[in-house]
Amino acid sequence: MSTAIVIGLNGLSYAFILFLLAAGFSLTFGVMGVINLAHGALFVLGAYVGLEVVARIDNFWVAIAVAALALAVVGFGLYFFFLRHLYNKIPEQAVLTIGIAYMVANVILWIWGPVAQLGHAPGFLTGAFKVGTLSFPIYRLFIIGVGLLILALLWWLQDRTRVGAIIRAGMDNKDMTVSLGINYGLVSTLVFLLGMALAGVAGMLATPILGSYPSMGDNLLLLSLIVVVVGGTGYIQGTMLGALIIGLLDTFGKAYVPEAALFFSYIAFLAVLLIRPSGLIGRKVF
Amino acid sequence: MGDRPDDVAKSDAPRGRARGGIAPTGKGARSFVETGLPVLAIGVVVLLLPLFLPTFVSSLVTKMMIFALFGMSLNLIWGYTGIPSFGHAAFFGLGGYGAGVLVLRVDITNFWLGLLFALLLTAAVAAILGFPAFRVFGVGASDNPIYFLLTTIAFGELLARAAIALRPITGGSTGLAGIPHPDLGFGITVTAGRYYYLVFVIFVVCLFIIYRIVNSHYGYALRGIHDNERRMQALGYNTWLYKYTSWIIAAVFGGVAGVMFAYFGGIMVPNNLSMITSDIAFLVVILGSTTTFFGPIVGSVAFVGVEYLASLYLPERWPLILGSLFVVTIMFIPQGLGVMILKLWRRLLYGAA
């Protein structure tokens, strides 16, 4: 029983890592209809930038801020120069961002070399949290906390703010939104930047658990695709649901049926695409 | 060139006709000069190439032909039917693995049997995957294909994972290594030098078949679905069946490319089924152009050429170059090199367009 609780908690913290990973992707994909297949590679870039800052000035919070900022700058370039011109051209967006993903992964390899890096949790977050005979790393609890915070923030942004309303309106009918005098270009650029900044934060936060190596972007991208599709596109709570399902499925699967666990998330992915392409609690984006 | 009487006539012709190219004489003569001559010339050059040039060139050309066929098979569904599959490597890898497993695990070394088995395998898997795929794809090219893209990515990754998991059959993550030179039966084993001709013959045959398919009644129906699927339905076409069969045909030709690739490199790895290889097909098609028949050949020549140059001068920066190929193609030559070459060729033949 106690092992099941620990596995459950591990699954939960993995689910929140997945949520952080997929949140930025979900924001741009589900809300704006931009498919950014470079998301995984950019997430890794965020992790490496953060690690570099930690290595130089040894401050965890500054590292997170710099990673977010760096990715926002990259995201601005990506959106302003490329994706903005490919509105609603899905295959073109996909091909372009695949190219960007290759380039980013190779630049990471170029600058930081092929050796995997393992970030360390800052001093005050190391150690374990003990209840009776169970112990659980504090850093994983911290991840869950940050995940909840970001979930709340994005939920509020989506449902309670003008920006959220504009983005939803633009998704439904861009021309109409623009003709109402709304600067949709500005708002969508900002949301794209927010999504990228989130990827930076998440990349930095996840390294102590996932590690970082230049080619990990592909796997992370597939994970974010799975999470977003399973949970549902268009709503941030859908992403959370998808992350919970995939995180728990994967962790329990690996603990109890390791041979088959490799396929679980893909089978869930395909099943959802077939039965309800818009995801479990999403709305059909396209 | 502008002093020939035909050119004067052409400049007065309505725009619709001018776009098709104005012929000085009848249709047959025009298509011979415009299409037959270059095809014949390139064919002869490719056929005689190994006699005059070093081995590495013929190996490069072999690779070009393999990826050109791979790209053309994707173009059949993407360019003609309007179905941008993102997991086309699933069939490429399946073909290669099928032939390789038959040789290495079942000990049936005959090339033709391996080819046949691989084709049946890809056709069967495509037939199964086609049902869910087109359920997701829905109706109408105006629909956004994003969920279809994701589904086909998942197909490829699922098969790649299966290839990793089925270690006794597929060799696991290290791949299926040591596929021997093809044995054509009657005691003929194709050595490395002669493999070029085998690929050439198969490539030409496939090219001919694909050409006949896309220029048949069936092929025109596919183009109709690409342009307006609802209208094709209104005209009484069972568009689902057309999409489904074109998907299987494309898969089979992708499988042929995979078989040739397996014998070419002697090895298949799980990545040959996954996104990394699908990306190559995508690049070859979009670089070449989705709107011309021969586009993927141009795309493949450009891709393999750049890859070779990169491996000579900047091997460790290859992914960066590959990535920028994608970006440059999408941003600056979205119509593809094929269209550019076609325009250039027509201008050379008939004067300024």
Core attributes:
heterodimer, A: 286 residues, mainly alpha, 3% strand, B: 353 residues, 16 helices
Q: Can you tell me about this structure?
A:
The complex is a heterodimer of chains A (286) and B (353). Helix content of chain A is 76%, strand content 3%. Chain A has 286 residues and is mostly helical. In chain A, strands 1-2 form a two-stranded antiparallel sheet. In chain A, helix 1 runs parallel beside helix 5 (138-160), helix 1 runs antiparallel to helix 10 and helix 2 (39-57) packs across helix 9 (217-231). Chain A is globular. With 353 residues, chain B is mainly α. Chain B contains 16 helices and two strands. Residues 1-28 of chain B have low confidence and may be disordered. Chains A and B meet through helix 4, helix 9 and helix 11 of A and helix 6, helix 7, helix 13 and helix 15 of B.
Describe the SSE topology:
The complex is a heterodimer of chains A (286) and B (353).
Chain A: H1 2-31, H2 39-57, H3 60-82, H4 90-112, E1 128-131, E2 134-137, H5 138-160, H6 162-172, H7 174-179, H8 184-210, H9 217-231, H10 236-256, H11 258-275
Antiparallel strand pairs in A: 1-2
Helix pairs in contact in A: 1-5, 1-8, 1-9, 1-10, 2-3, 2-4, 2-8, 2-9, 3-8, 5-6, 6-8, 9-10, 9-11, 10-11
Chain B: H1 5-12, H2 15-20, H3 27-52, H4 55-81, H5 89-104, H6 111-137, H7 146-165, H8 167-170, E1 176-177, H9 192-214, H10 217-227, H11 229-234, H12 239-265, E2 267-268, H13 275-288, H14 295-313, H15 318-332, H16 337-350
Antiparallel strand pairs in B: 1-2
Helix pairs in contact in B: 4-9, 4-10, 4-12, 4-13, 4-14, 5-6, 5-7, 5-12, 6-7, 6-12, 10-12, 13-14
